[in-house]
Amino acid sequence: MNLPSPISTVTFNNFTFDVKRDDLIDPYISGNKWRKLKHILAKAQQLGKKHLVTFGGAYSNHLVATAASGAKFGFKTTAFVRGEAVTNEMLTICKLYGMQLLFVNREEYKDKVKLFDDHFGGESNAFFIDEGGACAEATLGCAEIIDELNACYDHIFCAAGTGTTAAGLLKGINEKTPNTQLQVIQVLKGQDFITAEVGKYVAELAQLKVHTNYHFGGYAKFNNELLDFIKNFTATTGILADQVYTGKLFYAVTDLLKNGIIGPTEKILVVHTGGLLGLLGIKDHL
Length: 286
Ligand SMILES: *Cc1c(COP(=O)(O)O)cnc(C)c1O
Fold this sequence. Notes:
Elements: E1 7-12, E2 15-21, H1 31-46, E3 51-56, H2 61-73, E4 76-82, H3 89-96, E5 100-104, H4 106-109, H5 112-120, E6 126-128, H6 136-147, E7 155-160, H7 164-176, E8 181-186, H8 194-199, E9 208-211, H9 224-237, H10 246-258, E10 268-272
Parallel strand pairs: 2-10, 3-4, 3-6, 4-5, 7-8, 7-10, 8-9
Antiparallel strand pairs: 1-2
The structure holds pyridoxal-5'-phosphate (PLP).
Pyridoxal-5'-phosphate (PLP) is lined by residues 31-33, 61, 132, 159-166, 245-246, 273-275.
């Protein structure tokens, strides 16, 4: 793993900010998915477990990261995949890394503990990892992003799906740089549910700010405005961003700067959480 991940300073639309390049940690065990898995795998190893069992959709960065890190660190891997049996590029990579894929319908998928117990309850080597790697160990790995910083930032930005990464970052901020504001871009449509999720792991929430108006229609939804932004951003800065997470994140940073919500002299770090295989989802749209 390429850690600590480097920091790039980019200038875009006349605004300058730093980017924590967790997308460069590994091509397939990328970004926050490695941060989350690091302590989970250490715990599995400690307990003598040999078989990682996890859960995700057919386009899950977490499944690819689990498959690749399982192969690298000597675990067998199995994934329960939500929905009808399909093939796509991401699942192909999972299979290459030796992951066994078990497709289950949406109803069955809801009860993950039952799925694990029914299939692997009798296997003492098997180790349960929740969807997206969500758990307390995952927040510890994400808090380590703050340990790797040499500068103090006014604002740290990240994208949020479940909020586990945001919880880890806030934990690190509260301990190390308590004046830093954590600006979280919720990529799912709807009211803020991130604050409650972060609150499961972190008691002090004063430095947390959640933005709910940059979802572009909902999870994995996008429009031409977002695609044009991503093309322009990538061509200008040399940094790829996907339409599910980091494209919406960089769009939000740029928009908040443009509207003066964040001042031009404030020091900003954007956490690039990786997940670039998600770009396969726009192959028919460019
Ligand atoms: C999974 C993922 C996220 C969301 O992380 P949460 O901890 O679920 O909020 C953000 N960015 C990328 C690139 C991801 O793959």
